[in-house]
Write a structure and sequence with these properties.
Layout (H helix, E strand, L loop, with lengths): L14 H5 L7 H22 L12 H13 L4 H17 L7 H9 L7
Helix pairs in contact: 3-5, 4-5
Length: 117
Amino acid sequence: MNRIDVVCDVARPSEKSVIRGGKGMGSAEMREIVVNAREFRSWRLARYGAADGPGGAALADDARELFEGYAAKLLLGGRAIVRIASVARTVADIAEHPLVETEDIVEALGFRSRASL
């Protein structure tokens, strides 16, 4: 499971929602989020350069402490730590955080397989 970066459970929509035409995020909206995150990443790299943290993630101090605590509690290996940090860096780019914040770490941990937690 350490070779899978993101596990995402997708809930089945209710019949009423489908019949009544309820819509989630469309492809155009998703594309805009991805394009914005990539632009932010380019800006961040130009301004701060590449980070030497795990997965290329520069962690805020409180995020580092939180991550270290979870890594110890969950007995995460090196590969898992790097993969979670990499996903957290992506989450932070979407949120336009120059440093990976605690909420980015928490969200990235939420994408881990439930079997590995």
